[in-house]
Design goal:
257 residues; mainly alpha; P1 Nuclease; three-stranded mixed β-sheet; 3 strands; 5% strand
């Protein structure tokens, strides 16, 4: 089992998945949910295929709005990786997992107001996608990065065109998301997966450690790394959508009982 310590204190300097990635996750999830779940989403929140785009990207759209400053820590939950002696000893209480659980409780609570439910759904849809971007669950500690690389935001990629750092590279799915389309993906691709968000975080962490770090610096090897990374990113987008759909189905099946 991978050994790690939680790091909740490093803020992500850029978004997880770009807008296209978040929209793909949400739209795919909407095709994967059970008919009754989709009916309830449309009835309670007026969510159809076009509306889901705005719901999916809302947390990033308001990231500079001081009114929503409290949401900044909810995009990620970084697990420390690298030199253990440099790992931090104190962590903020808010993170992606607490955000998902809080949103779940609001949606399950019949006493929750409509504005509370709308906010919870926005958070849930966005953050579940976030934690499937491997660099939203890790921070690398080393002599070069004694305070962590902030989820790859400080990890420079000097020889990669259009990308300045590792986090930016993965936000764009290693270049895959610029050409991705809905028909690339299969429905219900995670039928036997866990419904526990913590397990999804662990899986993303393993990908970060074993497949994201450390990119090669030679041009030829970097091309191979990028091609492989695009395949990983596509799979993570698909898993995020499938997990989100299953999580929404579970919430609304329990809310009806």
């Amino acid at each position: 089992m991978i050994k790690f310590l939680f790091l909740f204190g490093i803020s992500s300097l850029t978004m997880a998945w770009n807008a296209k990635g978040h929209q793909l996750v949400a739209e795919l999830a909407l095709t994967d949910v059970k008919p009754e779940t989709k009916r309830l989403l449309q009835k309670e929140f007026h969510i159809a295929n076009t509306d889901i785009y705005h719901v999916a990207t809302w947390m990033d759209d308001v990231r500079r709005d001081r009114q929503y400053a409290h949401l900044r820590y909810q995009h990620y939950i970084n697990l420390s990786f690298g030199q253990a002696s440099r790992f931090p000893k104190q962590y903020p209480k808010q993170n992606a997992l607490t955000a998902i659980e809080s949103a779940r409780q609001v949606l399950l609570n019949p006493a929750s107001s409509q504005p509370e439910k709308i906010m919870a759904l926005r958070i849930l849809i966005h953050v579940i996608a976030d934690i499937h971007q491997p660099l939203h669950v890790v921070s690398y500690y080393s002599k070069r990065y004694p305070h962590g690389d902030k989820g790859g935001n400080l990890y420079l990629l000097p020889k990669v065109k259009n990308y300045h750092h590792l986090h930016q590279f993965w936000d764009d799915g290693a270049g895959y998301l610029s050409q991705a389309k809905l028909s690339d993906f299969s429905a219900n691709a995670c039928k036997n997966d866990s419904l526990l968000p913590f397990q999804w975080v662990q899986d993303s962490y393993a990908i970060a450690v074993h497949e994201v770090y450390f990119p090669p610096y030679s041009k030829v090897k970097m091309q191979s790394y990028q091609l492989k990374s695009q395949g990983v990113a596509k799979l993570q987008i698909q898993k995020a959508a499938c997990h989100l759909a299953a999580y929404l189905d579970d919430i609304y099946s329990n809310a009806r009982t």
